[in-house]
Amino acid sequence: MEPGNRGANVCLVCRRLRRRCSDDCEIGQYFPSNRSDDFHSAVSLFGLTNLRRIMGSVEEHQRQTLANSILLEGKAWRLYPGRGLLGYELELDAQISSNLSEVETAERFLAYFKDQTNPNNERGESSNDAFKRNEVVEEKELKKDEKGKQAIIE
């Protein structure tokens, strides 16, 4: 081994234990060195002894999935220190709700403009009335959904 390359092929587990990494290192192959931040977060969350015990308790074909799960949990706690994966899930839920409301608004505008460009309205009402009627129906659905009853569309 060259002096400038001493720590290049040492896995994260062996580096953390300050020992030489052998070619038959069972746990180190699942924790790549390019995910060292996630690994250090996972070690601070679970502890190195627990990580080694957990990794040793599963079968060989499940270890990569377990290691990815551990690294994801470490990353989540690093990015969302107060809530971990729950914080990530809540952020995604908020983004989904925001995007859904934007889509609903865009669909209402699209229906309004389609109706406005149609000179022969099927219901004999102005396009502005149709847009207002759509809003009233949505308000009725929301009120009935809040009470826990099934919404009835008129």
Automatic annotation (TrEMBL):
Pfam families: LOB (PF03195). InterPro entries: LOB. Residues 122-154 have a biased composition (Basic and acidic residues). Coiled coil: none annotated. Residues 114-154 are annotated as: Disordered. Residues 9-110 form the LOB domain. Belongs to the LOB domain-containing protein family. This is LOB domain-containing protein. It comes from Vicia faba. The lineage of its organism: Eukaryota, Viridiplantae, Streptophyta, Embryophyta, Tracheophyta.
